[in-house]
Amino acid sequence: MTARFRSVADIVSTVGGLGRFSSMPGTVASAAACLVALFVPPTWPLILSVCIVGTIASDRYARETGRKDPGEIVIDEVVGMWISLFALPQTMWLPALLVFRILDILKPVPISTVEALPGGIGIMADDVLGGVCANLLLRGLHRLFFGGGLALLYR
């Protein structure tokens, strides 16, 4: 990790250089997002604000480096992880982390489709959709197994 940053876009998109800290920057940033969420719960205004600023910064940083989706950009993982955690009890945060990372690595359709969008929008969109999918999947599984969902099968 270098102590020098190219620009403000570099600082924001790499989350202060966190994206350069490891060979698994997405996983590190996702875990860091969970830790931050313990102290600053991810609200919709916070998520939306970071998403907008992160999209702009990611677009600028990608243009600065001349690469489509530089691996050190991890602000998108922070946003996606916060969406995964949104309004879930803390007891579901570890499964949220695991499901989000699996979706982010495998990128099933439609997640892989939105990744093809141009610039910062494409960089951010796949993780936003991955976060939404992880959150909805966990809500559905929780309802099915712990909220009486299986009882519907026996009526």
Describe the secondary-structure layout:
Layout lengths: L7 H6 L11 H15 L4 H22 L9 H11 L7 H14 L4 H4 L4 H28 L9
Helix pairs in contact: 2-4, 3-4, 3-7, 4-5, 4-7, 5-7
Beta-strand residue fraction = under 5%
User: Ends: how far apart?
Assistant: 59 Å
Q: What can be said about the biggest beta sheet? A: none
- Class per helix and strand makeup: mainly alpha
Query: What fraction, in percent, of the residue positions are helical?
Result: 55-70%
State the low-pLDDT regions, or none.
Answer: none
The helix count comes to 7
Dominant shape: elongated
Written as H for each helix and E for each strand, in order along the chain, the element string is HHHHHHH
Number of DSSP-assigned strands = 0
How many separate domains?
1
Description:
- With 155 residues, the protein is mainly alpha-helical.
- It has one domain (8-146).
- Helices cover 65% and strands 0% of the residues.
- It is built from seven helices and no strands.
- The protein has helices spanning 8-13, 25-39, 44-65, 75-85, 93-106, 111-114, 119-146.
- Helix 2 crosses helix 4.
- The longest helix is centred in the C-terminal third of the chain and has 28 residues, at 119-146.
- It is elongated and about 60 Å long.
- The N and C termini lie far apart (59 Å).
- The model has no long low-confidence stretch (mean pLDDT 94).
Q: Would you summarize the structure shown here?
A:
The chain has seven helices and no strands. The protein has 155 residues and is mostly helical.
